[in-house]
Amino acid sequence: MKTAFVTGATAGIGEATVRALVQAGWRCVATGRRKERLDALVAELGPDRVHAAIFDVRDEAAMDEAIANLPTEFAAVDLLVNNAGLAQGLAPAQKSSLDDWQTMIDTNVTAMVRLTRKLLPRLIERKGAIVTIGSVAGSYVYPGGNVYAGSKAFANHFTLALRADLHGTGVRVTSIEPGMVETEFTLVRTGSQQASDELYRGADPMTGEDIADTIVWIAGLPPHLNINRLELMPVNQDFAGFRVARGDG
Fold this sequence. Notes:
Blueprint: E1 3-6, H1 12-23, E2 27-32, H2 35-45, E3 50-54, H3 60-68, E4 79-82, H4 98-126, E5 129-133, H5 146-165, E6 172-178, E7 181-182, H6 185-190, H7 193-200, E8 206-207, H8 208-219, E9 229-232
Parallel strand pairs: 1-2, 1-4, 2-3, 4-5, 5-6, 6-9, 7-8
Helix pairs in contact: 1-8, 4-5
């Protein structure tokens, strides 16, 4: 039985990915900060199939401890799903909070590269796979996206660079770049359930399960096939057109 290491597994895409992988026959290390949610996943899916690793990805010491203390049956990692990430704020750059910017960089960039580097020896040994959840925001910027868009551009391109560096190792690497997915994303970003409801209302957005099913498909491909990057949007979303600001004259 193969083992996946899934970050940000307490909600949304990460939680759905753990469920989908277990259903497909995998074991999962499920990581996150919210113990009660991870404990519920373990209770639902079974301690033989899910190991809860409770830590904040921004805490390197806690990350190291969690990796060092993986039970033997979960220690050989065949798949890393770099899912943990967030956005904070929608203000333009000149009005944004530097604390919000730092939180996004620490979570979306620093934590991702640290964890990836720490697990690379195991993934190479197992000829495993890495799937990173980037975003269409890394390719199509929008007002208020600033550091979030920049962090996802980094995630998208870091993943492609990993693909180049891991040439010849047998490790497969994929950048999944979703558009609108209805999760806790907007609630976390704005702090408003109303704002979240309004964003998704009538849009028929993608779901965490849609992305999870895509991850399971990629993970189950024959070892000689690699999906380099995959961009997904709901039918009702597209990449926006250019804007023009006009003067009064």
